Amino acid sequence: MASVGQITRQISALEISSKPNTTRPATTATTSQHQKKPSQTNVSKLLSKYAAPNPFPSSTSLQKTASTQSLAKNAEASRPPSPTRPKQPAFDIGRYDGGFEIENETRGEKVTGQAAEDLALDSSVAAYRPTREWHLTDFDIGRPLGKGKFGRVYMVRTKREPHYILALKCLYKSEIVQSRVEKQIRREIEIQQNLRHPHVLRLYGYFHDEKRIFLMLEFAGKGELYKQLTKYGCFTEKRSSRYIDQMADALMYLHSKHVIHRDIKPENLLLGINGELKIGDFGWSVHAPGNRRKTLCGTLDYLPPEMVEGREHSEKVDYWALGVLTYEFICGAPPFEDLSGYNATYKRIARVDLKIPSKVSPEARDLITKLLQYDPERRLPLSEVRKHPWIVKYRSKGHSTASAA
Ligand code: AMP
């Protein structure tokens, strides 16, 4: 099994290259005959074209793309056409409101000492295969995407060709230090940078200045899943089933890398440009090869009995959370929520006090019950989740079941 260090080294070879693609084979003339001009209205197609390379276009290619070589090849293949081809219209990234500069005047302080060392995050100076150094000036900044606890997130485009579209997230170092989460942030960044999966938000790189850390993230074109859930109240079983299939696929990948997420909930999920689910937050995840952990973390509603009872836990905490997520998608609220307070929720979790509304189909009910088992060992394995009738029933024809096998 590859260690995180090995994976980091493999992946560091893949960070976005600033070089324009000049090595396209001489088939350009032939291929350009068949070239379709993307219509201006098909935003997702156009946006896909400028999205920074994701070496995993579908879960089918997951196995194939395990090596650095094939990853690099895929990244190459997903680049926009060479300069000899007619130029595509650039994707509109929206209007910048000057937020990074305005905020930098008023927010955050310089960080010194050990904390400054801990937060001197710059992927360009990684010991193995250093990549190019990035600065804020390398990007055209577009519309604001949102505000997080430690800073803002903007849609950006690399100034140099091939003009990749990314989300740039700013974190204020002094606020990280104040919240005493230097180690957690470092861990989140280290974990996320080593992951490559279609349902895990990519972190392409990072850089820092005296006051801030900038994360170069995959742009999740359809935003937060939580917003959708709030808008619709709940999802249809078809939509829920497809999301749970994607989640199970992503969690199998994370567990194969010995990463336990530990904070699965709608607020931590984003949607890609084609509406596909992306796990976007690794704040509570832990890299624990063969290690059982005891830290209480995550949101109470999604915590399993072994965590609320302070017992040691394993990757099976994510199986439980998947059961809670399935329930919340279909019913609109988590199963053990008790509005009278944390204590009541805690007790309901420990008793597995599960009441499934009658509107839920028998197949969905079966899956939820099999995941929400008190004994972690009795929870349905993720490979079985992906073969469950409720998942198979709604899986679209084009979608591969290869990684479910
Ligand atoms: P966060 O600091 O991660 O909570 O991000 C704040 C907000 O920015 C989120 O609630 C999202 O609406 C938005 N956002 C964060 N990351 C991305 C991304 N990669 N793509 C699109 N929107 C994002």
From TrEMBL:
Residues of the active site are D263
Region (Disordered) residue spans: 13-94
- As annotated, the Glycyl lysine isopeptide (Lys-Gly) (interchain with G-Cter in SUMO2) covalent link is placed at K265
Q: Where does ATP bind?
A: K149, K169, E218, F219, A220, E267, N268, D281
Q: Which GO terms describe its biological process?
A: attachment of spindle microtubules to kinetochore; homologous chromosome segregation; meiotic spindle checkpoint signaling; regulation of cytokinesis; regulation of mitotic cell cycle spindle assembly checkpoint; regulation of organelle assembly; response to mitotic cell cycle spindle assembly checkpoint signaling; sister chromatid segregation
Q: Which family does it belong to?
A: Belongs to the protein kinase superfamily. Ser/Thr protein kinase family. Aurora subfamily.
User: What protein name does the entry list?
Assistant: Aurora kinase
In terms of Pfam families, this protein maps to:
Pkinase
Which stretches are tagged as biased composition: Polar residues? 57-72
Please name the SUPFAM superfamilies in this protein's record: Protein kinase-like (PK-like) (SSF56112)
| Kinase listed as a keyword | yes
Question: Which organism's genome codes for this protein?
Answer: Pycnoporus cinnabarinus (Cinnabar-red polypore)
Q: Write out the catalysed reaction.
A: L-seryl-[protein] + ATP = O-phospho-L-seryl-[protein] + ADP + H(+); L-threonyl-[protein] + ATP = O-phospho-L-threonyl-[protein] + ADP + H(+)
